[in-house]
Specification:
Oligomer: heterodimer
CATH class of the largest domain in chain A: Alpha Beta
Number of domains of chain B: 2
Helix content of chain B: 25-40%
Shape of chain B: globular
CATH architecture of the largest domain in chain A: 2-Layer Sandwich
CATH superfamily of the largest domain in chain A: Aldehyde oxidase/xanthine dehydrogenase, molybdopterin binding domain
Distance between the termini of chain B: 48 Å
Helix content of chain A: 25-40%
Shape of chain A: globular
Structural class of chain B: alpha+beta
Structural class of chain A: alpha+beta
Largest interface: A-B, 58 and 54 residues
Strand order of the largest sheet of chain B: 2-1-5-3-4
Order of helices and strands of chain B: EEHEEEHHHH
Number of strands of chain A: 29
CATH topology of the largest domain in chain B: Ubiquitin-like (UB roll)
Number of strands of chain B: 5
Number of helices of chain B: 5
CATH class of the largest domain in chain B: Alpha Beta
Number of domains of chain A: 3
Largest sheet of chain A: 7 strands, mixed
Radius of gyration of chain B: 15 Å
Strand order of the largest sheet of chain A: 3-5-1-13-10-11-12
Chain lengths: 775, 155
C-alpha cells in the first residue's frame, strides 16, 4: 500500500493557517439579520405574560418570537436517531412557556444589527411565576420533590436495566465483595467555534441552513420535525469544516429553529451566534453517580457485578436517554468477562442545564468508577492490576459481548496492556505511598476494554454512510460525502482511502466543498468513533466502483482485459507489459467524457459508445460490523503534598485501532483526547449558583481547561494494529477511548503516589489536601 | 455616536466610522472582512482572536478599535498567504500536524510569532509560556509545540 500508514499533509491545513475561510461562523448572506435570544433568569418558572410591543417598534427590529408563535410538536433534538425513536423521550418544544433551567430561551428577536437586537431584548417584558426548583437528582426522585414534566411524576425520564446470570449466586461465590460510590461532574466539550447558524427561508417556505454541527441529515430531519414541515423543505449545507465538536454539536440547538422562524417572519436570512456563556449552558457531559458492588475470587476473577447509575439529565431528557445505556453497557456491564451482572440506570430530570453529547458518551463516568474500583480491589488483595485485567478480559475470536451476531474478530487489548506497561516502565513502579518528601511521584493506568466503531447493532441509531467519487478529465477525483470534519482529520483520512483505492496521489483527491443534503447520500453523524471505519468503508466502496469503471474504459483503450490492469500513482498499466503500454488516469477519464473523436498526441481517435460515461462511483451502505477498539492509558504524576497540586508528567497510550491510516493524525487525536481527559480529571467543572441555578463558569477565565503549561511534555502513543477484516484497509476506530481512560488512570496514579483515593471528580487540590488530613 | 478613525492593518490604511465600544476584533472581522482573527469567547479567555499590535501579541476582542488608532495591526493574513508565500510558522504548523479543527491556529501562530521575533532559539519552557494564553481543544498542544520548534530551527 502506498498511502495507508503515511501522513500526507491535511488538505484543509493550508486554508486554516492562512485565515480559515470555511467555518460556518464566517457565513454572511445578503440582507442577513442578526438574531438574539432572551433567556430566563429563573431555573423553574411559568411565563404569565410576555410584552414584546416596545421591542417590535424599535427601528431595525424585523421579527420577534415568543412561545406563542412556535409549533407545539414535542421532539428530541438528538441527531442520530429518528425523530420519533422509541428509545428517546420527546419532551422539548422550540420555545416553551414553562422554564425548566436558568438560561432557557423565552423570546427572540431579529434585527438589522446585533446591537439593535440586544437593545430590543432589553425592551421585552416577561412576567414569571417562579416555581420551586430542584438541582439534586437523587432528591428529585423523592416523593414531594418539584416535578418538571407531567409525564414523569418522579422526575425519572428513563430507567433502563440490563443483566445476565444469577447475581445472588455470583456474590455468594465471591471470596471478597467491594462496594464504592463514584461521582462525576458536569463538563463542557469546549469546541472553540461557538454554535452558530444562518437560516434563510425562501419565498416558498423552504429553508437553507448553514450551521456549525456534526450531522447534516440529523439537522435536516430534526429541524423539519420541530417546524412540522416536510424534510425536503430543509436543505442543510455542509461547511468545509467546523471549529470542533466533540459531541457538543450533535443535537438541534435552540438557535436553528428560532433562526428559521425569525427568517420566515422577516423574509430575510437570520444569523444567530451564541456567546460563550450560552455555549456553556447548551451542552455538557452529564454528572453520573455510580454505586458499584463487585464480587471477586481470591485470584481476582469476577464473580458478580452490580451497579446503579443516577444520571442528572437536567431540564430535558435529550441525550440523557441514550447516554445512560452506553454508560451501562460499555462502561460497567460488559467491559470485562463476568458471569453474573446487573446494572440499573436512572436518567433524572432536574432544573439544571440540559446535558448533551460529549466524546465517550457516558463511558468516562463509568470508566472512572470501574477502573478506580479495580485498583482498589487489587490493592486490598495484593494482586497485580495488569494481571487482574488480563484475567478478566475478553479474547479475540469471542462473540461480541454487547452486539448480537458479531464477533471480536480483531481484539488487541492484552497487547495494549503489555506494550503500554513496557513503555511507561511499569515494573519500576514503586509500592503505593512509598516516596518521601513533599513531591511524590506515582504511576497508574486505566483501560477502556470495549468500545464501538459506529453504531451497528444499536436498534434506534442510524448507522450508514455514503459517498460519491467522480473522476475529472485532468486525472483528479472529487469525493463528496456528508461526513463532517470536526477537526480530527476526516477530510484527510477519507481522501487518503479514496486515493489508495483509485491508485491516485493524495493531492489528486479533493473533498467537495459545500455539498448539501440534496446532493450527497445520507450519512450518520461524525460521532461514535465511526467515521474512519464506517464512512471510510463507504468511501472505499464508492472508489471501488469508480475504479472498476476506470479499468473497463482503460481496457478498451489498451486492448487488454480489465483484470490484467493495475492502477498506481495515477497510471493504468497492463500487468507484465512494457511501461509504454500504459495510460494516465487523466487520459482514461478524458476518453470517458470525450465526444465521438478524441484529439490526443496521436491525432484524432474515434471513440466508442462503451467508453462513454463519466467515471463515477456511488455507495450508500451500512458497515459489516462494529469492531471494538481497546485502549489503555498509563500516566506518571507528581503530587505536591503541601499544596495538593497534581502535575501529570508523562502519558503513554496504547490503542488497538485496527490499522493506522494517518499516523500523525492519529497521534494528534490521542494527544487532544488526553488533554480533555486530564481536564476532566483535575480541573474542569461547570459550576452553578446553588440557589438560582445560574452558571458561574460562563467563560474561559472561570472554566479552566489545560493550557500548554499544564499538559505533560511527554505523551507517547503506542498503536496496536490488529487488522480488522471488515474495516477499510483494516482500520477501526480511535476517538473516544482516548478520553475515557485519563481520569481513572490519574486517580490510580495519585493513589500510587500518596496513598489516598479520591472518589469524586474533579480531583482538585482541596480534595487531595482534605484526603491527606491537611484541611 | 460613531467616531472616524484610521486603522493601519497589515500595512494598509483604512478610514472607518466605528462605534466607540466596538472591539478591534469586531472591526477586523465585520468591517475589514479579515477572517483570521476568530471570536472564541469575546472575553479574553481563549486567544483565538490574537493579533499583533505594534509587534506585540494582543487579544483583539479586549481592545477597542478606537484604541488601536495610530498603531500597527498585523493579523495572520499579514504574515503570509498562498499568494505571497507562507511564513515559516504557517508551513511548520502544516508539516508538524499542528492543525486539527484550526479555529485556534491563527491566534496561536501570532503568539508564536512574537516569540520567534524576539527569541531566536526558544526553549520548550519559553514556547509553552508563549502560547499559554491560547487555548486549543483538539491537539493537546504537543504538535503545536513541535511546529514552533520546527519553525525556530529554520532560522
Amino acid at each position: 500500500m502506498s498511502l495507508i500508514g503515511k501522513s500526507p499533509a491535511r488538505p484543509d491545513a493550508l486554508d486554516k493557517v492562512t485565515g480559515g475561510k470555511g467555518y460556518p461562523v464566517n457565513v454572511r448572506l445578503p440582507g442577513m439579520l442578526h438574531g438574539k435570544l432572551l433567556r430566563s433568569p429563573y431555573p423553574h418558572a411559568r411565563i404569565r405574560r410576555i410584552d414584546t410591543s416596545a421591542a417590535a417598534k424599535l427601528p431595525g427590529v424585523k421579527a420577534v418570537l415568543t412561545p406563542a408563535d412556535v409549533p407545539r410538536r414535542k421532539f428530541t433534538p438528538v441527531y442520530f436517531v429518528p425523530a420519533d425513536a422509541g428509545s428517546m423521550v420527546q419532551d422539548m418544544v422550540i420555545m416553551s412557556d414553562t422554564v425548566r433551567f436558568a438560561g432557557q430561551p423565552v423570546a427572540a428577536v431579529a434585527a438589522t444589527s446585533l446591537r439593535i437586537a440586544e437593545e430590543a431584548l432589553a425592551l421585552i417584558e416577561v412576567e414569571y411565576e417562579e416555581l420551586p426548583a430542584i438541582f439534586d437528582p437523587e432528591a428529585a426522585m423523592q416523593p414531594g420533590a418539584p416535578v418538571l414534566h407531567a409525564h414523569a411524576p418522579n422526575n425519572v425520564a428513563v430507567n433502563p436495566s440490563m443483566g445476565f446470570g444469577d447475581l445472588e449466586r455470583g456474590f455468594a461465590e465471591a471470596d471478597h465483595i467491594f462496594e464504592g460510590v463514584y461521582q462525576s461532574h458536569r463538563v463542557h466539550t469546549c469546541y472553540m467555534e461557538p454554535r452558530v447558524c444562518v437560516v434563510d427561508c425562501d419565498s416558498q417556505g423552504r429553508y437553507t441552513v448553514h450551521s456549525s454541527m456534526q450531522h447534516l441529515f440529523g439537522l435536516r430531519q430534526k429541524l423539519a420535525y420541530a417546524l412540522e414541515i416536510p424534510e425536503s423543505d430543509v436543505r442543510v449545507v455542509k461547511p468545509p469544516y467546523i471549529g470542533g465538536g466533540f459531541g457538543g454539536k450533535l443535537d438541534l440547538g435552540y438557535i436553528e429553529p428560532v433562526a428559521a422562524l425569525l427568517s420566515r417572519r422577516a423574509g430575510r436570512p437570520v444569523r444567530i451566534e451564541q456567546m460563550r456563556y450560552e455555549d456553556f449552558i447548551s451542552t455538557a457531559r452529564h454528572p453520573i453517580k455510580v454505586y458499584l458492588k463487585t464480587g471477586v475470587k481470591k485470584d481476582g476473577t469476577f464473580t458478580a457485578r452490580y451497579s446503579r447509575s443516577i444520571l442528572d439529565t437536567g431540564a430535558h431528557a435529550t441525550h440523557g436517554a441514550e447516554v445512560i445505556n452506553v454508560h451501562g453497557a460499555f462502561g460497567l456491564l460488559m467491559t470485562y468477562r463476568c458471569p453474573n451482572a446487573k446494572w440499573e440506570g436512572y436518567t433524572v430530570y432536574t432544573n439544571n442545564m440540559i446535558g448533551g453529547g460529549y466524546r465517550g458518551y457516558g463511558s468516562p463516568q463509568a470508566c472512572f468508577a470501574a477502573e478506580s474500583q479495580i485498583d482498589e480491589i487489587c490493592e486490598k488483595l495484593g494482586l497485580d492490576p495488569i494481571e487482574f485485567r488480563r484475567r478478566n478480559a475478553w479474547r479475540q475470536g469471542e462473540a461480541h459481548p454487547v452486539i448480537p451476531g458479531l464477533k471480536l474478530d480483531s481484539y488487541g487489548f492484552e497487547e495494549c496492556l503489555a506494550r503500554g506497561a513496557e513503555r511507561i516502565g511499569w515494573k519500576s513502579r514503586r509500592k503505593a505511598n512509598s516516596g518521601s518528601g513533599t513531591r511524590r511521584r506515582g504511576i497508574g493506568f486505566a483501560c477502556q476494554p470495549l468500545w464501538v466503531s459506529g453504531c451497528v447493532g444499536f436498534p434506534d441509531i442510524y448507522e450508514h454512510s455514503g459517498a460519491i467519487v467522480k473522476l475529472n478529465p485532468d486525472g483528479t477525483a472529487d469525493l463528496a460525502t456528508a461526513a463532517m470534519d470536526l477537526g480530527s482529520g476526516q477530510i484527510t483520512t477519507l481522501c487518503q482511502i479514496a486515493a489508495e483505492e483509485l491508485g491516485l496521489p493524495m493531492e489528486a483527491v479533493r473533498m467537495v466543498q459545500n455539498a448539501d443534503t440534496t446532493t450527497v447520500p445520507f450519512d450518520a453523524p461524525s460521532h461514535a468513533s465511526r467515521v474512519t471505519y464506517s464512512a471510510g468503508g463507504a468511501v472505499r466502496a464508492a472508489a471501488t466502483v469508480a475504479r472498476e469503471r476506470l479499468l473497463k474504459v482503460a481496457g478498451i483503450m489498451l486492448e487488454a482485459s480489465p483484470e490484467d490492469l493495475t492502477v498506481a500513482d495515477g497510471r493504468v498499466s497492463v500487468r507484465g507489459a512494457p511501461a509504454s503500454r500504459s495510460l494516465s488516469v487523466a487520459e482514461v477519464a478524458q476518453r470517458a467524457e470525450s465526444p465521438f473523436v478524441q484529439h490526443g498526441a496521436q491525432g484524432p481517435v474515434p471513440t466508442t459508445l462503451e467508453e462513454k460515461g463519466t467515471i463515477i462511483g456511488l455507495s450508500s451502505q451500512a458497515p459489516k460490523g462494529n469492531p471494538s477498539p481497546a485502549a489503555v492509558a498509563f500516566v506518571e504524576v507528581e503530587v505536591d503534598t503541601e499544596t495538593g497540586q497534581v502535575d501529570v508528567l508523562r502519558a503513554v497510550y496504547a490503542h488497538d485501532l485496527g490499522r493506522l491510516i494517518h499516523p500523525q493524525g492519529a497521534e494528534g487525536q490521542v494527544e487532544g483526547g488526553f488533554q480533555q481527559g486530564m481536564g476532566y480529571a483535575l480541573m474542569e467543572n461547570l459550576q452553578f449558583d446553588p440557589d438560582s441555578g445560574t452558571c458561574l463558569t460562563g467563560d474561559f477565565l472561570d472554566y479552566k481547561i489545560p493550557t500548554a503549561m499544564e499538559m505533560p511534555r511527554d505523551i507517547q502513543s503506542v498503536f496496536v494494529e490488529t487488522n480488522e477484516p471488515t474495516g477499510p484497509f483494516g482500520a477501526k476506530s480511535l476517538s473516544e477511548p482516548c478520553i475515557t481512560v485519563p481520569a481513572p488512570a490519574i486517580a490510580n496514579a495519585i493513589y500510587n503516589a500518596i496513598g489516598v483515593r479520591i472518589h469524586e471528580l474533579p480531583i482538585t487540590p482541596e480534595k487531595i489536601l482534605a484526603a491527606l488530613g491537611k484541611i | 455616536m460613531q467616531k472616524l478613525i484610521t486603522l493601519q492593518v497589515n500595512g494598509e490604511r483604512h478610514e472607518l466610522a466605528v462605534e466607540p465600544d466596538e472591539s478591534l476584533l469586531q472591526v477586523l472581522r465585520n468591517r475589514l472582512e479579515l477572517v483570521g482573527p476568530k471570536k472564541g469567547c469575546d472575553s479574553g479567555g481563549c486567544g483565538c482572536c490574537s493579533v499583533h499590535v505594534d509587534g506585540r501579541v494582543a487579544y483583539s476582542c479586549m481592545m477597542y478599535a478606537v484604541g488601536a488608532e495610530g498603531r500597527e495591526i498585523t493579523t495572520i493574513e499579514g504574515i503570509g498567504s498562498p499568494a505571497t508565500g507562507l511564513h515559516r510558522l504557517q508551513q511548520a504548523f502544516i508539516d508538524a500536524g499542528a492543525v486539527q479543527c484550526g479555529y485556534c491556529t491563527c491566534g496561536i501562530i501570532m503568539a508564536a510569532k512574537q516569540l520567534l521575533d524576539t527569541v531566536k532559539q526558544p526553549s520548550e519552557d519559553q514556547i509553552r509560556l508563549a502560547i499559554a494564553g491560547n487555548l486549543c481543544r483538539c491537539t493537546g498542544y504537543a504538535k503545536i509545540v513541535d511546529a514552533i520548534k520546527l519553525a525556530a530551527a529554520q532560522t
